[in-house]
Structures are given as structure tokens and as C-alpha cells.
Amino acid sequence: MFKNLEEKEINYILKNNYIGQLGYIFNNTPFVVPITYFFDPESNAIICYSGDGHKMIAMRKNPNVSLLVSDVENVTNWRSVLVHGKFEQHFGSDAKSFLHKFSLGIKEIILDKEQTKANFISDFSSKIYKDDIPAVFIIKIEGVTGKKRLDFTA
Questions:
Q1: Which residues of 57-87 are buried (b: 16+ CB within 10 A; e: fewer)?
Q2: What pLDDT, on the 0 to 100 scale, is given for residue 45?
């Protein structure tokens, strides 16, 4: 049976995961890529960082993005959340503050979920090479939907 997720379920999924699928448009073509994220309920935003490549160029041109986060046990037991929002790149002390919150938040999720201690961003996110300065950005949440399928008869 398919059902809509309640707001508390949506927030739980966003708060307790750190890998999602980022959707964006480049030259009228949709792209979806995996990304490490942190949900910050205080700012109602998704915090991310990236090297300065394809997706950053695309999101600067078209800031409308989405993020899909899923908890999948099997084909009949799953929950997914789709976030729609606007890309906003941050710089300077703002960027450092968001990156710090991102790092601490994900370390806590990993410790909770995986009973593993992550010491550095590179332990849980794509490596940024030493000559690259990461671009810090948020997805300012404009809307969220969630679905679930739970089959307790199996």
C-alpha cells in the first residue's frame, strides 16, 4: 500500500540520512547525481559542498533543483522524500559556518547509524583535491513530498 509521508516522517528521513540524489538542469537536459548532504532544520535548508565543476556551473545558471532521499529495505518496504528548492552558493565566513555544520552533522549521523567514527570530511564525502577550494552551497527548501510503501504481510 502506498501512502503519503507525514511531515514528521519526512523530517526523520532527511535528518537521518546523508546521501541523496541531486537533480538539476543543464542546457535543457536533466541530470541526477549522488551527493552528500546535511539537512539543517534551523535554516530549512540542505547543506552541500562540491568541486567547481559541471553541477556548480549548471546550478548557477538555473538554481531550481531537487534532492531525492530514500530509505529502501526491499521492493515492498521503502520510503522516499523529494525536496524542491533553490540553489544558493555561499562564500567567506558564511560558507565556513555551513561547512562546519555540515561536517559535525554528518559525523553524528554516521556515528548513530553505522557506529563508526568519521574524523574528516573525506571519510564520508567525495575528496576535494588539495588545490581545489570547495564550493559551499545550500538548497533553500521550497517544498517537500514523501511517499512510502510498507507491506507487513510479507
A1: ebbeeebebbbebeeeeeeeeebbbbbebeb
A2: 97
Of the candidates 85, 99, 95, the one whose C-alpha atom is nearest the C-alpha of residue 140 is 85
Q: Which segments in the chain show pLDDT lower than 50?
A: 120, 123-125, 127, 129, 154
Q: What is the pLDDT of residue 127?
A: 45
Taking CA 117 as the corner, what is the angle to CA 107 and CA 131, rounded to the nearest 5 degrees?
65
Residues whose CB is less than 8 angstroms from the CB of residue 74 and which lie 6 or more positions away in sequence, other chains included: none
CA torsion 100→49→33→8, rounded to 10°?
A: 40
Rounded distance between C-alpha atoms, residue 17 and residue 22, angstroms: 14
pLDDT at 151: 78
Task: Please give the pLDDT value at position 65.
Answer: 98
Identity of the residue numbered 65? V
Residue 135, all three cell numbers: 564550493
Q: Residue 14: what are its φ and ψ, rounded to 5°?
A: -65, -40
For residues 39 and 148, give the distance between their C-alpha atoms in angstroms, rounded to a whole number: 20
pTM, to two decimals: 0.86
In which residue are the cell numbers 548557477 written? 60
